[in-house]
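Supplementary Methods. Inverse-folding protocol.

Structures were first reduced to a discrete structure-token string of length 95. This string, shown here, constituted the complete conditioning input.
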């Protein structure tokens, strides 16, 4: 059974369509509230990052981490490698 519309006919009832719309709205509303709360909690960090961007116009990942701190979850190995390479380049340039 396919849930795609065929010639304008839905494969489900109006009642089911209404329940789907209500569930989607509930999910979107919950996500909106979570994001709004997160933005409020991190407001100072966001403003600090905005200030850095106004000063420098362009920043890289190490600079972002410097401003907002470590990510709340483990970074992928490729990103860790990138950060290590950036540190090595900075050390070589300073030497």
């Amino acid at each position: 059974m396919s849930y795609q519309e065929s010639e304008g006919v839905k494969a489900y009832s109006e009642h089911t369509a209404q329940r789907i719309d209500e569930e989607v709205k509930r999910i979107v509303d919950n996500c909106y509230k979570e994001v709004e709360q997160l933005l409020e909690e991190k407001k100072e960090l966001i403003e600090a990052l905005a200030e850095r961007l106004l000063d420098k116009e362009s920043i890289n990942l190490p600079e972002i981490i410097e401003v907002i701190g470590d990510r709340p979850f483990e970074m992928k190995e490729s990103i860790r490698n990138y950060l290590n390479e950036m540190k090595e380049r900075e050390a070589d340039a300073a030497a």
